Amino acid sequence: MSLSPPAERTLTQLDYVRLTRLLTVAGDAGGMREVLAASDLVASPAVAPSVATMYSQLLVREATLAAPVKLTLCYPDDAEPARGFISVLSPLGTALLGRRSGETVHWTAPGGQPRATHILELLFQPEATGDYTT
Fold this sequence. Notes:
By secondary structure, the protein is α/β, with parallel strands linked by helices. It has one domain (10-129): Roll (Chitinase A, domain 3), CATH 3.10.50.30. 20% of the residues lie in helices and 28% in strands. A five-stranded mixed sheet has the order 5-4-3-7-6. A two-stranded parallel sheet has the order 1-2. The longest helix has 14 residues, at 13-26.
């Protein structure tokens, strides 16, 4: 008997359904299908408050930058990178989804440069406030 290793990510069932639907329209970007397939799914009320879900606000620090940056993980239509709203389908957005505060995520920038971003803290998670539908 072999045991599967634990998933690296946790997604809410609602985020999973919405992202699966989004990919049917937008197509796969940056391996999101693999992320969805390899994630543990939980009901929204059961997700740990340290997990980055859709519309979570995160304080992150990129290895090459000294100052932390506040980001909000959002859907492509709401993305405004200059204001810190990053699409879940962007390379960094895909890397952050379902990860926990304290983790370092590795991703590849659009120009092909490898990057590492540390999640310092989740400043806000909708599910932690009882919002299970955002």
